[in-house]
Amino acid sequence: MLTDSPASLTELAVLKTFGSSPLPLIIEAKPAQADVSREELLAWLKEHRSQLDRLLHKHGALLFRNFKCLQGADDFEAVIKATSHTMLDYAGGTTPRSAISGKIVSSTDAPSHLTIGLHQEMSYLEPSPNFPDPTPDKVAFFCEIEPAAGGQTPLCDMRIVLQKLPQDLIDRFESKGLRLTRQLPETKAAGYEVTWPTVFGTADRSEAEAFAAKRGWRIEWTDDGGVRVFQQPSPSTRCHRVTGEKIWFNQAHLLHTAFAPWTGDFLGPSPEEKAEADRLRPAMSTRFFYQSTHADGSELLVSDLEIIRKTIADTMTMFDWKAGDLLICDNKLVAHGRQPYTPPRKILAALAADDRQADH
Ligand SMILES: [Fe+2]
């Protein structure tokens, strides 16, 4: 057990990595400290918050492991509150998910056979006068039920991706910028779509229009009850607010019709699922899609997007979830995804923002 004053980082935990990969840094409770109480752990986290932030900015992600007091959503939320300035909600997002409690949500409700490509959370949200830095600083995950098989959350350092990408590709993206258009249905047909009432947090059209106006988005209601959302231009790279490092920061490699979910076996691999996917595909391709272009509306080169996808695949690292694992990622530095899995699997998610005034 700990003494009255919080222990230093290494008195409570061992810091290590999975092999030679610096991502994530594992902060593993020493066997003698695995039974530390939640209150003691929270006090320790608060005491060492600036040191933990420095490690987060260096490695990109911190994995807390073997702390037995971390059991569920309530413990997860308490840790995120102790290590962050403000917890955020998922308004405006692109992934189906369910509320668990407070601002804790399921990591995704996407079917277990699907691979979720690596992305920085909400990096498709463009800066605007009302939201100068609209993407979370941290995205965190908690493993309540470890997967029976698979289900890893791959991580990728996007500083390294930027270093690896060809300079002519970077120049094309930086000089011409990006713009996202989304077609969102009113209701689900295949189960995994994101509906506009989910994105806007309301089924009321005038409230949805007000939400869009605040973001600077132009919207058009479509005959099928859906809506087309035209976002403002967005940069393709950015500099980290604290470290100043330049990062590849966009989701064009995922949010493009060349890689839309309905281009594959989105319902599953069985003959029946393939047949149903074939039946749904024509309607799916018009009622639900994301399309990234350059800011002036010109098409992206699909060959560029293939290079980005391969660079991320070659750079990413993976580890197997253990129940009780708590992962905090710097959402600007590191992209995350999800591997297919054999149920059960229950991973919770949370978003947080730093105190952005504190740095100025
Ligand atoms: Fe995500």
What does this structure look like?
By secondary structure, the chain is of the alpha+beta class. The chain has a domain of 200 residues: Clavaminate synthase-like (Double-stranded beta-helix, 4-Layer Sandwich), CATH 3.60.130.10. Helix content is 28%, strand content 24%. The protein has 10 helices and 20 strands. Strands 1, 2, 3, 4, 5, 6, 8, 17 and 20 form a 9-stranded mixed β-sheet that branches. Helix 2 runs parallel beside helix 4 and helix 5 crosses helix 10. Bound molecules: fe (ii) ion.
Q: What are the defining features of this structure?
A:
alpha+beta; Double-stranded beta-helix; 9-stranded mixed β-sheet; 4-stranded antiparallel β-sheet; 20 strands; 24% strand; disordered N terminus; binds fe (ii) ion
Could you give the topology of this structure?
Blueprint: H1 9-12, E1 13-17, E2 25-29, H2 38-47, H3 49-59, E3 61-65, H4 73-83, E4 86-88, E5 99-101, E6 104-106, E7 116-119, E8 138-145, E9 149-150, E10 155-157, H5 158-164, H6 167-176, E11 179-184, H7 196-200, H8 205-215, E12 218-221, E13 227-230, E14 237-239, E15 246-248, H9 271-287, E16 289-293, H10 302-315, E17 326-330, E18 334-338, E19 341-342, E20 346-353
Parallel strand pairs: 2-3
Antiparallel strand pairs: 1-2, 3-17, 4-20, 5-6, 6-20, 7-18, 8-17, 8-20, 9-19, 10-18, 11-13, 11-16, 12-13, 14-15
The structure holds fe (ii) ion.
